[in-house]
Design goal:
With 274 residues, the chain is mainly α. The protein has 13 helices and no strands. It has one domain. Helix content is 80%, strand content 0%. The longest helix has 32 residues.
Length: 274
């Protein structure tokens, strides 16, 4: 019997004790992976087309313009700088994906059903993040492959930083999207926040340009922008990379704790216990 069968068969669910953390986690992961597989057309666009377009068209175009302005023909230096920024921007979209999935879960009563059948908030929250993190890794693989086609070469250390930065970024933004879904009940409010924040977040970070080349006011914004640390965790710079990885990890942990608390709190309020 699969984990899905546990929720699809109420009689089986009622006859079992509350799920352990691992079992509840696997139930949610299985749900989300199946949901990802059902949208195969969208999956192909998100995993392959979007990241390839970002690097091959936008990235190569900017690199060509910079090279032309400097009177040089070699694009590799800026492209190598740009790759972590493109990866981080793609991972930022995890916020939208998880927020949409969580909203569907709540609208159709799936999240409530999972918790009634024994899935704890501590298992539900990380379980919702696995499939989006896997998708973000697929996007990073596409970006790295496109960069190789443009003539770049990466060391195993660089590829490891890309993977670590992608996972940390996807977990943070996915967790934040889940928190927004539970903190903001109305969809129009969530959409307003997305529209107001995401362009400034993207451009007030060293995604397409170096941090020290920014105006002072942008550097101030970048210092409190999580995307800054996601990007810098993937650029091998002495001292900066390790600190950025540590800060990115702490951001994930803090957001995870806050989201688990909010989901548990929402459940208590719905039951009339608070």
């Amino acid at each position: 019997m699969t984990h899905m069968n546990i929720l699809e068969n109420p009689a089986v669910s009622r006859s079992r004790p509350p799920m352990t953390f691992l079992r509840g986690f696997l139930v949610v992961v299985e749900f989300e992976i199946k949901a990802l597989r059902y949208s195969s057309g969208t999956l192909l666009t998100q995993a392959v087309v979007n990241p390839a377009v970002y690097l091959l068209l936008l990235g190569a175009g900017i690199a060509s313009a910079i090279a032309s302005a400097r009177g040089v023909e070699d694009l590799s230096g800026y492209l190598a700088f740009l790759v972590p920024g493109v990866i981080a921007v793609q991972a930022l979209n995890t916020f939208h994906r998880v927020m949409w999935r969580a909203a569907v879960d709540r609208q159709w009563g799936l999240s409530a059903m999972k918790r009634v059948y024994g899935v704890s908030p501590a298992a539900y929250v990380p379980g919702m993040l696995v499939a989006p993190a896997v998708l973000a890794l697929a996007q990073t693989a596409t970006i790295a492959l496109c960069a190789v086609l443009l003539g770049l070469r990466f060391t195993p250390e660089q590829l490891g930083l890309f993977a670590a930065g992608t996972v940390l970024s996807a977990l943070f933004w996915g967790c934040l999207g889940l928190l927004a879904t539970y903190a903001l009940q109305k969809q129009d409010r969530r959409n307003t926040i997305v529209n107001l924040l995401f362009l400034p977040l993207t451009f007030a970070a060293p995604t397409y340009y170096a941090l020290d080349a920014m105006p002072t006011y942008m550097q101030v914004i970048a210092a409190v922008n999580p995307l800054t640390y996601h990007v810098q965790s993937m650029r091998p710079e002495d001292g900066v990379t390790a600190v950025s990885l540590m800060i990115s990890g702490l951001l994930v942990l803090s957001c995870l704790i806050a989201t688990v608390w909010k989901v548990a709190r929402t459940e208590l309020l719905s039951r009339g216990h608070a």
